Amino acid sequence: QVQFVESGGGLVQPGGSLRLSCAASGLTLDYYAINWFRQAPGMERERVSCVSISDGSTDYADSVKGRFTISRDTAKNTVYLEMSRLTPEDTAVYYCAADLERSRCNVRNSGTYAYWGQGTQVTVSS
Question: pLDDT category, 79, cuts 50, 70, 90?
Fold first, then answer.
């Protein structure tokens, strides 16, 4: 059974940083594209970033380029999202997601991905 457990969210001031973790079980990260999505109240779920070992690629939403960095620790089967220079617009629940049919980061549609974590809340506020 595929499961993701996100952690690391919290309250941070504008301009601050956070590191989110996504611990995976039931699948090996080496073979699948692992995504970070976020969803703010009243908004659609948006893909923030993705990492794929199969083609060595990463992908970022324009809104986070240069501020967020995705990485993976295959020994721990965990994906991280380092977030810096946070703004109130980054406030959302952050989820990691994957699908056994997706090894690349070429699809941003949330409906494509079958497996999701429970999410971790990130609130950026002074």
Answer: very high
Residues 81-94 have a mean pLDDT of 98
When computed from its CA atoms, the radius of gyration of the chain, rounded to whole angstroms, is: 13
Spatial CA neighbour of 81 closest among 111, 54, 117:
117
Q: What are 126's two structure tokens?
A: 């002074």
- Strands annotated E in the chain: 3-7, 10-12, 18-25, 34-39, 46-52, 57-60, 68-73, 78-83, 92-98, 115-116, 120-124
115 C-beta neighbours (distance < 10 Å), count: 18
**Location of structure tokens 């629940």:** 93
| Four-CA torsion 24, 114, 72, 29, nearest 10 degrees | 70
Mean pLDDT of all residues in 116-125: 98
Entry field: residues in the chain: 126
Instruction: Give the pLDDT mean for 68-80.
Output: 94
* pLDDT of amino acid 121: 98
